[in-house]
Amino acid sequence: MADKKIFVNLPVKDLKRSVHFFTTLGFTFDPRFTDENATCVVVSDHIFVMLLVEDYFRTFTKKELCDATTRTEAILALSAGSREEVDDMVGRALSAGGKASNDPMDEGGMYGWGFQDPDGHLWEVVSMGESETAPR
């Protein structure tokens, strides 16, 4: 069976603002899936985040969109290689206009910290100790 990929789709109010935000965090974009309605954030070889302008996002669902600035829709967790990488990414997110979504959490072998992107989507960056193999 071929390797699976995941495409997370998120609605955004201002695509240019979102591209600037995720560029500041060090991510790149796949130009094949980028236009005035959407862009594809490359998280890894198998993980992508599609940022879709809200009106375009609505063409994919009959449900109302969640206002992520006031409600939690999901928490997107990213792995990091170390505690320092966690702090660095969250620090860059805060400097780029994001907001802290929680205080840093140190659970022994696992360290994490979270932020909200400019549209209120929740992101958690986690470093797991050598003995940890899966998030909680």
UniProtKB/TrEMBL annotation:
Residue ranges constituting the VOC domain according to the UniProt record: 4-128
Highest taxon above the source species: Bacteria
PANTHER family assigned: BLR2408 PROTEIN, BLR2520 PROTEIN
Protein name, as recorded: VOC domain-containing protein
Organism encoding this protein: Actinorugispora endophytica
Lineage of the organism: Bacteria, Bacillati, Actinomycetota, Actinomycetes, Streptosporangiales
